[in-house]
Amino acid sequence: MTRLHIQMLGGFQLACDRTPIHVVPGARKLLALLALRDAPVPRSVAATQLWPDTSERRAGACLRSSLWRLVKPLTPLVVVTEDTLTLGAEVEVDFRHACAFAAAPGASPEAVGMLKADLLPGWWQPWVQAERDWWRQARLRALEALSDKFRSCGDHHHAHQAALAAVQTDPLRESAHRTLVELHLADGNPAQAVRQYQSYRAHLRAELGLEPSSHIHALVRPLLR
Q: Which of 5, 80, 168, 203 could form a disulfide with 92 if both were Cys (CB 3.0 to 4.6 A apart)?
C-alpha cells in the first residue's frame, strides 16, 4: 500500500513512500488546514480561511484550482464531497502523532526531538498561529513531564535534555529552569546550578523587570551565601 505522510513540525513536506513530493502553495495550505482538523471542513470555510483577502466567489475558485492541482496518488489525499473536505484516512500526519504523545508522554529519548519542533514555522495565517500557540503550551507541559519521568528512572542525561528543550522553547518558564537547577544539584554541580539560576534571573529582569520566585531562589540560597 502507498504510504502518504504530511510533515508539519519543523516545516511542511508531503512524502509518498518517504519520497518528497512537490506541492504548489495553494494546495500546500489546503493540506495543512485539513491536517490540523479532526473533523470534515466545510468547503466554504476552507475557502474563506485560506483566501481571506478575496471575494467569496474568487476564494471558491482558488479552492477548486488547488484541489485540481493536488497530486493524485492511489491512496486519496483529500476526500471531497459536495459540501466538505477531509484529509484521507490513510494519510499520516506527524503533528497528530505528536499531539497524542504530548497528552501522555512516555520516557522515550526520541520524544524530546519531536516535542522541540515548532509547528509550521514561518507560516503567518491566523488558523496556523492559533494551533501553534496551543502546541507551544502543550509541548512545554509534555517536556517537563518527560523530564520528571527520566529523572525518576535515574536517567539524568535525558531528563536534562527535556528540561533544556523546555527552556529553549520558553526562556522565561521558571518551572523548567527550576528543574535544571535541581538536576545540576543532584549531579553534584553546584556552580552550574548557580549559573543556571543567575542566567534565568538576568533574563527575567531584562525582559519583564521581575525577580525569580522564592521557590527557585531557595534552591541556590545556601550556595549564594
A: 5
DSSP summary character for residue 77: S
Chain segment 106-144, per-residue pLDDT in tens: 777 778 888 989 999 999 999 999 999 999 999 999 999
**Structural contact between residues 142 and 172, judged by C-beta atoms closer than 8 angstroms:** no
Q: Label residue 1 by pLDDT band (50, 70, 90).
A: low
Q: Which helix (H) or strand (E) holds 15?
A: strand 13-16
How, if at all, do strands 19-21 and 41-42 pair?
unpaired
- The three-state (H, E, C) secondary structure of 82-116, written as one string: CCEEEECCCCEEHHHHHHHHHHCCCCCHHHHHHHH
Distances (CA, A) of 19 to 23, 68, 76, 121, 171: 13, 21, 16, 22, 36
β-strand 4-7 against 13-16: which pairing, if any? Answer: antiparallel
Residues with Cβ < 8 Å from 135, sequence gap 6 or more?
Answer: 95, 98, 99, 118, 119
Of 117, 101, 116, 88, give the one whose Cα is nearest residue 1. 88
Share of the chain above pLDDT 70, in %: 98
Position 29 scores a pLDDT of 95
pTM as predicted: 0.86
Angle (CA) 147-115-2 rounded to 5° is 135
- State the Cα–Cα distance between residues 25 and 173, nearest whole angstrom: 36
